[in-house]
Design brief:
Strands 5, 6, 7, 8, 9 and 10 form a 6-stranded antiparallel beta sheet that branches. The chain is α+β, with helices and mostly antiparallel strands and 499 residues long. The protein has 4 domains: 94 residues, 2-Layer Sandwich (Uridine Diphospho-n-acetylenolpyruvylglucosamine Reductase, domain 2); 136 residues, Uridine Diphospho-n-acetylenolpyruvylglucosamine Reductase, domain 3, CATH 3.30.465.10; 112 residues, Alpha-Beta Plaits (2-Layer Sandwich); 87 residues, GMP Synthetase, Chain A, domain 3 (2-Layer Sandwich), CATH 3.30.300. A hairpin with a 4-residue loop joins strand 15 and strand 16.
Length: 499
């Protein structure tokens, strides 16, 4: 890319952004050059920090004028993990939305929150608690992770009974297409402005539309390649008055599956997830001594189920739920545990519903590469056996692997995640983890694993080998919404010449 184009872009954008809205400071640029993944290192040409939708629109229009590729970023610095915020071509400009960080509305009656793209979990969760609301959130999210980005990327949430569709908890959104046009989805599209809608009691809660056009499903998972989302509404639930944590431990994962399916069928419990003991101990204990003590006391697999009640009959509801659950557990020859050694209820609830400064998956050895996809609960043991055998035969020096299984859409499918732990300061472990990550990912894809969020190198297999017909169709979508190919070029299947 010609330097004159970059210089002209810089001058034009600097003229309309607020003070300190654009930077070419090498130290700042370097912080965006790489993440926790194994992607190639490449620094952007500039960083921009828009503060309004109009700023985003003007940045995209300038990028189109000078043919500058844009990389949207919303989460705070450090520990980004999927290569989706690192430039993949020279002369790229990062559009950092972290200064668009206003909580626009918390609506307890309609159980919905409206937030700008830069609002983080650490910022939002305490404010929702004040309103006796809770977000349908992922497991122990990083504190400076963008709430909107998490929803756009369809990160798994903890409560399958409230997870009705793959898009949950995302509702309506405002975005700027690669054409520079501003668009609102669902009921937010109108009629009337947002203020006029609010005056008539609307809450921007219906994501479908406008008309028969459900654009939000197209934008989800697009990794910023079709449009830049500036705000979104997300569904919430009422905060429970009382909760009770129940644990189940077994040596064989298969012994838990029929039981879990029955609980999901009757929508029993709120939070529910399964882990192998290494992942579970890493989640709960950061202190090495406490981690080893807990690890040695656990069976190979742990299922966590949390019962919840609200209002003055909360205790009664939990009592009858526990009674029904006990009957189901006895039928499956499982023992209910109301506690585990070294874990108190307060610590467990804080772990699940608070945030962390660093990814909890990094606690064990300092770094982790996660391989995750969608499948069904009954197929999880087969995939687990496949990965264990592959590690044993080809990567014997990787002895430690975490497994996290999160039921979704009321048990219709699940998020299955294999966590490869390694020491980032040991070159041998880094190289082995990189090789194992690629080999296991390809093996799983060829075995039918559905990589619904194909980051980085996954996209080549997911689109080129597994779904070439989808690639052709999505190219047409890209041509409509980003005809000049300025938004996140060369990601997903958008790798044609000039993109």
């Amino acid at each position: 890319m010609k330097e004159s184009k970059l210089e002209d872009f810089y001058n034009e954008v600097a003229a309309f952004l607020s003070k300190d809205g654009i930077s070419d400071d090498p130290a700042i640029l370097d912080s965006y050059a790489q993440d926790e993944s194994f992607c190639d290192r490449l620094a952007p040409a500039f960083i921009t920090w828009p503060t309004t939708t109009r700023d985003v629109q003007l940045i995209i229009q300038s990028a189109t004028k000078f043919a500058i590729p844009l990389v949207p970023v919303s989460s705070g610095p450090g520990f980004r993990q999927h290569a989706d915020t690192v430039p993949n071509q020279e002369g790229s400009v990062v559009v950092d939305l972290s200064k668009m960080n206003h909580i626009l509305r918390i609506d307890r009656i309609n159980r919905v929150v409206m937030v700008e793209a830069g609002v983080t979990f650490a910022q939002l969760l305490p404010e929702l608690t004040k309103q006796d609301l809770r977000l349908l959130q992922p497991l122990c999210p990083r504190g400076n992770k963008s709430v909107v980005t998490s929803a756009l990327e369809r990160e798994p949430t903890l409560i399958p009974r409230y997870h009705w569709d793959a898009s949950d908890p995302l509702l309506c959104m405002e975005l700027v297409f690669g054409t520079g046009d501003v668009f609102r989805t669902g009921s937010a599209a109108g009629p009337g402005s947002i203020e006029e809608q609010l005056a008539t009691g609307q809450a921007q809660k219906n994501p479908l539309g406008p008309a028969q056009f459900n654009l939000f499903q197209t934008i989800q998972g697009a990794q910023g390649s079709l449009g830049i989302v500036t705000w979104a509404t997300l569904k919430c639930e009422l905060q429970p008055t009382q909760q009770k944590i129940l644990y189940f431990q077994v040596a064989d994962l298969r012994l838990l599956l029929d039981f879990a399916y029955e609980l999901l069928k009757f929508r029993m419990g709120d939070e529910m997830f399964l882990m192998n003991k290494l992942a579970f101990a890493s989640l709960i204990k950061a202190d090495p001594g406490e981690f080893q003590s807990l690890l040695s006391s656990l069976e190979d697999w742990v299922l966590v189920v949390i019962l919840a009640g609200r209002g003055k009959f909360a205790a009664d509801k939990i009592a009858y739920l526990e009674g029904d659950l006990t009957d189901i557990a006895q039928k499956h020859n499982l023992t209910i545990l109301t506690s585990l050694s070294g874990i108190d209820d307060a610590q467990m609830m804080a772990t699940l519903h608070s945030t962390s400064d660093t990814p909890w998956t990094n606690r064990y050895k300092g770094a982790c590469q996660s391989i995750f996809f969608l499948t069904t609960l009954d197929r999880a043991p087969t995939y687990n056996d496949q990965v264990v055998q592959l590690l044993a035969s080809q990567f014997a020096d990787i002895s430690d692997m975490g497994v996290y299984i999160q039921p979704e859409t009321q048990g219709c499918n699940c998020h299955l995640e294999f966590q490869l732990y390694y020491n980032p300061n040991n070159p041998t472990e880094v190289d082995t983890a990189r090789t194992a990550f690629t080999a296991i990912s390809k093996e799983l894809m060829l075995s039918g694993a559905f990589f619904s969020r194909p980051y980085g190198e996954w996209a080549d297999v997911a689109f080129d080998q597994m779904a070439p017909e989808s690639s052709w169709m999505l190219q047409k979508v890209k041509d409509i919404f980003d005809p000049n190919k300025v938004l996140k070029p060369r990601v997903l299947c958008f790798k044609q010449e000039g993109a």
